Amino acid sequence: MVTLQMMQFTAVVLMLLLTAKLLFLRERRIKSRQARQARCLMAGGTMLMAVHFAIQLKSGLRLMGVTQSVMLNLAMLIPASYCFARAVLLLQRRGELSLADRWMGPAVWTVTMALLGVTALTDGQPLLSDTPELRLAEKAGAVLYMLMQGYYTWRHTVSLMAMSQTLHDYYDRDTDGMLRWMQYSIIGLMLLALMVPIAIFGTGAWLLIVAFAVYFFLFYLVDCFCFYLISPAPERIKAAEQNANDADAAMLSPEAMGEVEAAVEAWRARGGYCQTGLLQPLAAQDIGITRYRLTAWLHQRGLKYSEWIAQLRVEEAKRIMAEHPEWSNDTVAQHCGFADRTVLQRTFKKIVGITPQKYLEDLRE
Predict the structure, then answer these.
(1) How far apart are CA 304 and CA 44, in angstroms?
(2) Using CA atoms, how far apart are residues 24 and 128, in angstroms rounded to an integer?
(3) What's the pTM?
(4) What is the pLDDT of residues 234-259, one digit of tens each?
(5) Residues 62, 4: contact at Cβ < 8 Å?
(6) What is d(CA 130, CA 201) in angstroms, rounded to the nearest whole number?
(7) All residues at 6 or more sequence positions from 108 whose CB lies less than 8 Å from its CB, including other chains
(8) Taking burial as the number of CB atoms within 10 A of a residue's CB, which of 134, 147, 270, 272 is the most buried?
């Protein structure tokens, strides 16, 4: 049977291993100062969690009574969660954090500790005694913790949407995979916030279930975080953001829109979109216009670059399959600019609603 002490010991070991993994990442593969700061914050969060579980294991506070354990939970979990949330936000916003982003966590921790301290000293009972007033203060602290997590979840979501839009305006393929770990991490942080009352006040089987969920989520968060830091994804996102920052967001005149439209139509007629790895600046160069004009033209038509290119390639794939039904998916993908047959099949089904094979079958009927 799994006991609370076994869970706490496992948590200490896991948090120490995750901290070591963060600290021993190859420094030369972490390109930016913001990424290094995020790594330190993430390591600080896992170390705080290790210290927290070690104290709980050594002192047995969870078994001794509610008050002592709850106060320790609030004292350690608030700054740890803040470190995790701020680390992800640093990566998303490339270090450009607001005052609320920087100080929400410390403010919540300070208010919670002050509330608990004042209540413990003024309720007329021995220090750390389990009184109704202290229980109420602990619940207030848990609510503040949930509000803090809610704020950072909102900030993460807004930043993730902006990053996704930037990538769609730069790359000619689906790039959501670069950010999927962030999406899952945001969902995890939100769920953790909802499970705070169980994690802080709970006992028995529910506590063990929540503990397993927390361990799994933290392992996933740190593992994906480390992989992301040393992958090409940060540099690719940086390139897309620089393109977006440099782009001219001004509205094109009707005459300018017509000029861009004519250039784009000529480019489409010669199949310029069938090149693989066609970044937005390269497409603009091939069309014969500035990337600022292409960006403005797409925005005024309500199009995302990646979706526009995908639509053009799928239409070409439909034409090719009608003319050459004997061609394999690999050949069609290569001709139309898709990276491989898997990308062709996924994109085709997303846009048309059926697979290329089913489309061919319908053509034969």
Answers:
(1) 39
(2) 40
(3) 0.83
(4) 888 888 888 777 655 567 888 889 99
(5) yes
(6) 13
(7) 78, 82, 144, 145, 147, 148
(8) 134
